[in-house]
Each structure stands twice: as C-alpha cells, then as structure tokens.
Amino acid sequence: MSGVDVGDTAPPIRRRAHDGRVVDTRAAIGAHPVVVYFYPRDATPVCTRQACGFRDRLDAFAALDAEVIGVSADDDASHRAFAARHGLDFALVADTDGALSRAFDVGRALGVLANRVTFVIDRDGVVRLRYQAQLAAARHVDRAMATLQSLSGRA
C-alpha cells in the first residue's frame, strides 16, 4: 500500500464544510479522534448508502467522541443538497481542486473514479485505519467504528 497508511501522521484538513462550519483536523489533535472518509460522488447509490450508514451511527461515533467528515470532489452546493436530502448532520468537505485526495493519496479507481477510502485518525493525529473498498459502503462504517472502539478500549 502506498501513500498515507496506518502509523503515519495524517495530513491536515482545514476547509469550510458545506454548512459553513470550519473543519480543522489540526485543532482536533489532543481533543478527539476523527473519521475522514473519501467517496466518489454525492447522490450515487453506494455513496448514499455509505453516508447514510455514518448518519445512522452518528450517535455511536459521538459516544466515542469522534468527529465524522466526508470528502468528495463535489462542490458545496451539491453537498448541501445531498446533506439536506438525507439528513446528514456531519461535515461534507468539497475537494474540487483534488488537493485533499492527493495529500491522503486516495487515488482513482480504474484511473477515472475517485476511490472510496476511510481513515481513522487518533487524538495524536496518527492514522489508525486506512480502509479502501469501492463497493463495500457498510464495511467502511463498521471498520471505522471497530477501530475507534479499539482505541477507546471498548472493543
């Protein structure tokens, strides 16, 4: 596996989310873990299942003091519509310039479609999970939860 992997310091994210809040993963260091998941496109079937999976377990992520952040190349207007349609109460970050995808070395499936990759970043800013599976939307949520439970000693 190349790029950002388990044990590496996570690249920082400092961007405004679809709802206007500032997402700053450097500010989270020492405060709480962060789940950052990269997905191909808003409103596509697998991406919608993945986002709704995180939404449906958001209380469980919050109980582990974790912040969830979704990232795709879609713009803020697309993210706002996607979040409103599906009741997504976590930050969606536009990566229209591809800088975040490059920083995390997410890559592209078959050279065209953005990869689906989930990262769990601990309180020290260290990557504890890098999980990539293009079609297994639910597994991303499950793997992130299991990693956070392990970090908290609740596994």
TrEMBL record:
Monomer. Belongs to the peroxiredoxin family. BCP/PrxQ subfamily. One of its GO terms (biological process) is cellular response to oxidative stress. Thiol-specific peroxidase that catalyzes the reduction of hydrogen peroxide and organic hydroperoxides to water and alcohols, respectively. Plays a role in cell protection against oxidative stress by detoxifying peroxides and as sensor of hydrogen peroxide-mediated signaling events. It comes from Salinisphaera orenii YIM 95161. It holds the Pfam family AhpC-TSA. This is thioredoxin-dependent peroxiredoxin. Residues 4-153 form the Thioredoxin domain. The keyword Oxidoreductase applies. The active site is at C47 (cysteine sulfenic acid (-soh) intermediate). CDD domains: PRX_BCP. GO terms for molecular function: thioredoxin peroxidase activity. InterPro entries: AhpC/TSA (IPR000866), Peroxiredoxin_AhpC-typ (IPR024706), Peroxiredoxin_BCP/PrxQ (IPR050924), Thioredoxin-like_sf (IPR036249), Thioredoxin_domain (IPR013766). It catalyses: a hydroperoxide + [thioredoxin]-dithiol = an alcohol + [thioredoxin]-disulfide + H2O. GO terms for cellular component: cytoplasm. Keywords: Antioxidant, Disulfide bond, Oxidoreductase, Peroxidase, Redox-active center. Its EC number is 1.11.1.24.
